[in-house]
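Protein of interest.
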Amino acid sequence: MQSRHEITKNWLPRYTGMPLDKFGEYILLTNFDNYVKTFCEKFNCDIYGEGRPMQAATNNAGLSIVNFGIGSPNVATIMDLLSAIQPKGVLFLGKCGGLKKSTELGHFILPIAAIRGEGTSNDYFDPAVPALPSFKLHKFVSDKIIDRGFEYRTGVIYTTNRRVWEHDQEFHQKLIDMTCIGIDMETATYFIVGHKNQISRGALLLVSDVPTTPDGIKTEASDKKVTENYAKHHLDIGIEAMTDIGGNGEQIKHFQY
């Protein structure tokens, strides 16, 4: 394998277990195996990649879903590998910690940008390059959220590779000073690597905890409750948006200058 394209064509099935010709033109990315299982139950389709680093499935409408795991290196890997098929659009369905007093569990966030606090994205672009979604994709997802009667927030997400930070008051103050609305471990990397690979991308994040409050740090019990109450709506919005965007959304073009 001499070229990058040859490598990614070989490695996408290697990581997911799904042949290249099984991938659809639009992709949902997630961190959660239950999202993939629910997707497959809904559409009666098979899960590929059991026992591999990532699991994937595609429904009869040509929409694929991939569970890439957790963290910025993993999301960078899947966005590199997806360049093998050059999807028309990718939507990340992730969870984040809410950083505003007005933020509540179950709120949806459409990030307008992400701060590159993770370091992984520096392997792709200079740190001065902003991590941004594709506006037209977010505009379409926004309409779908409203159509379903939900509200959503917009703002800047801080992305970090640091998983245990909730005890660090200096870091809390840094997040406040940056006026971030939420914190996660993937969004900035995902936006940057999508930009590098000329893939249209968006993120719909679900607030799963409010870690800057004393009783708001995520636990197994609290995360289970959020999943039970909100995960179905989260996934359904993603499915509807990425199923309809090909026929009803504005044409999305990716430009690099």
